[in-house]
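Structure tokens please, single chain.
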Amino acid sequence: MRESSYHAILTEMTVRALWETQNVIDCIPDDLWDKPYGGAPMWQHIYHMLHGLDQWFINPRDRDFVEPPIHTPLLQDLAIYPATHLNRRQINDYFHTIKAKLSLYLPALHDEDLLQRPEGCEWTRMTLILAQYRHLHLHLGMLMGFVQAATGLCPRVLDLGREIPLGPYDPYE
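Here you go.
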């Protein structure tokens, strides 16, 4: 891992977090996709997690933020049962859009940018990034718990020194 700068560390940790996110999503059995947890179907929990990452990682106050094409009003709100349905392909497409957006954003940052506030935002870039790590991992933990309770299998996570698998791998620990 490159530990030459703060932004390099954050970039590496984001790559690892996104790998874990994809792995957890891939581990969700089809029969759990629509199962409600706390009133919201599994896929809505995933959408909520991804929508937060999309909107809050860079600048939640960005006036030019565009909702994804699959969005409907309040779809990210887990307290409101959705009037629509998202399938696995739609969720995966949205995830890859976010991943591409972050892969452009992070390498363009410099260490001094991390303590700056994005336009119109009350928090620094570093605060926003760390807050999204917390949010992402809260929801990943819940999703992993749902999967493990239903299947007895725990989705794989990447220990700090573990290389990201490049070829076929066992998605479970």
